[in-house]
Amino acid sequence: MTRSKWNHYLSSVDIGMVGRTTLKPRCQCLPLAIKAMGSLLHSKVEAREWDDVLNSELWDLPTDVVLPALRMEKLINLRYLDIRYTLVKEMSSDMCKLKNLQSLSTFIVGQNGGLRLGALRGLSGSLVISKVQNVVCDRDALEANMKDKKYLDELEFEWDYENTDVGGVVQSIMDILSSLQPHTNLKRIHINSFSGLSFPAWVGDPSFFNLVDLGLQNCNNCSSLPPLGQLPSLKHLSILEVKGVKMVGSEFYGKCFFLQHN
Question: 23: which DSSP letter?
Fold first, then answer.
């Protein structure tokens, strides 16, 4: 399209009105969607072509299938993906194909897609893994290779359901978090709504020498705290709604306490 044709089109169509009344609401204010549609519509010179795009059945897709519909697995050179403040309900199983991804705000575990993070070795910065309850077993958790993600600084695990007292389920939850042991380079770890009876051994392990911020929230089934006193660099500790803990004793300090008092 020539510049003169584009200028003529701009003069004949109220682009601002189209954006405010049609494009922006349909894109639900999502920057990625708005940018993609803007690039697509930029090449359309006829009003009917705009109508064809804006009336496409793509707009009728449920929000949770928008990412698969965009076929993001084809974006093999994608480096940054931020899905915060969106209504996305789960990640596509093809996310593992984005091997060049360096920054991912959130990974939402789907009921069928699993935790396909193993191939994303270059992830850095902050990562939230939500809906951990959808991880099927500890083997699935191990395949995420969280130990290999040495460039991550901050990691958060989130479960989406209320605590349960079903023995088999609780044991599975404990095994899964144990298998999600991250790299020791992390500076911040938060665990939300974990319903195991105790935390895995890696929580409080002194090998996490860079860890300065640790948060435990809504972990009501746990009756004792991990030995957080062993973390050499810990500066900020947040413990909220861990109602099963009635007393904090010497176990909080771990082996270091006993070595100093023997």
Answer: I
Whole-number pLDDT of residue 71 = 62
Q: Are 189 and 155 in contact (CB under 8 A)?
A: yes
3-class SS at 100? coil
Cα–Cα distance measured from residue 188 to residue 143, given in angstroms and rounded to the nearest whole number: 22
**The length of the chain, given as a count of residues:** 262
Residue reference for tokens 């707009």: 59
pLDDT digits (tens, 9 = 90+) for 84-100: 877 778 887 788 888 88
Give per-residue pLDDT as tens, 9-41.
Answer: 444 444 445 445 555 555 555 555 555 555 555
DSSP 8-state secondary structure symbol assigned to residue 56:
-
Q: How many CA atoms lie within 13 A of 137 on its CB side?
A: 1
Name the amino acid, one letter, at 204: G
Q: Are 44 and 33 in contact (CB under 8 A)?
A: no
CATH class of 62-260: alpha beta
Cα 159 to Cα 150: distance, rounded to the nearest angstrom: 23
Residue 105 CA to its chain's centroid (Å): 5
The predicted model gives 203-222 an average pLDDT of: 94
pLDDT averaged over the chain? 77
252 vs 254: CA distance, rounded Å: 6
Residue 78 has pLDDT above 50, yes or no: yes
Under 8 Å between Cβ of 173 and 193 = no
Integer angstrom CA distances of residue 220 from 24, 52, 197, 201:
42, 53, 8, 18
